[in-house]
């Protein structure tokens, strides 16, 4: 890992919260993510399972976490099983956790090698009534690829068919959405690295530069500052490309007079930032570009005001839609008479702003959370309105990351330039 050691108090705190919500006499089992095949004998770079990291701080493949708070044998109340390293693995793959390092990273005292997992589990699981399994329950994604937690679940059910099986996801959905101080610090770090990448790019962009050259500048800054890399596939979309919402080709030349839409951000210690900005290739917005830009910025500022504890998703999106509709009328893109007659189920603003305004952010870029629970203190949400006008070859999106506090909210990206004049000033300095 490139990031500095994370305070293990975070993971001890998370485990304490997690086990406090289990039914009595329960055992919970978590597996590392699989190492996914890339091609031939190659794997993709390993990415830890977010729940596994949340509860253990262990960022290594082939690891198992067992939590059994009521275990009659105290030694097995919290146990980590790790891949046993060897001189051969050290030579070919490099360093793996020693038991002492795993203790320091996780705060867990009982560490065993993975080869002992089946035997130790068998000595304790028959004393438990309930077994909690970690399923990926993201409601925007349905699995077609089997993953380790599911495969291991199938084996457990064969071997221990009469235990009561439960879902850890229901507990984690409520816990992960509320960020603790250490998580907020890690997210701030991801935002700071993202800020430095953006300022670097503001000084780099000029007519004729290619989108991929900008991408190279960004990753240079990220890696230099110990980011793992991009939090998600970076979008560097000049001119009309900005109208492709998930444009990731990044292979076109940025032309004089166009705006480039950026949606990229850093991942630091598995925590993500998520930023969007839209800048003029030549350092000056045209009047029309500035009008659209400022309309998006006004929607963003008004939306951020609503990102406070107690706000309900649907009300929030409806309200943002109304503000956006007003701006689109102001820009001459919508007609107020048409708006008066619109079908409320298919509001006209969606022609120019077709995606959601916010999502939770954390260990996942689209973080795991309930859509039906009001916002709470400790939530981190994005705010990312946009206006896309294909007929003008223009798309503008702005996105900051907002932490809800007991007194309102804090913009974790408040030091990333966003006012049009400020961006022009830096580009021309
Ligand atoms: Mn986003």
TrEMBL record:
It is an enzyme of class 3 (hydrolase). GO terms for biological process: proteolysis. It catalyses: Release of any N-terminal amino acid, including proline, that is linked to proline, even from a dipeptide or tripeptide. Its EC number is 3.4.11.9. SUPFAM superfamilies: Creatinase/aminopeptidase (SSF55920), Creatinase/prolidase N-terminal domain (SSF53092). PROSITE patterns: PROLINE_PEPTIDASE. Signal peptide: none annotated. The keyword Hydrolase applies. Pfam families: AMP_N, Peptidase_M24. It comes from the Bacteria. Keywords: Aminopeptidase, Hydrolase, Manganese, Metal-binding, Metalloprotease, Protease. Residues 6-142 form the Aminopeptidase P N-terminal domain. Its cofactor is Mn(2+). GO terms for molecular function: manganese ion binding; metalloaminopeptidase activity. Belongs to the peptidase M24B family. This is Xaa-Pro aminopeptidase. The lineage of its organism: Bacteria, Pseudomonadati, Bacteroidota, Sphingobacteriia, Sphingobacteriales.
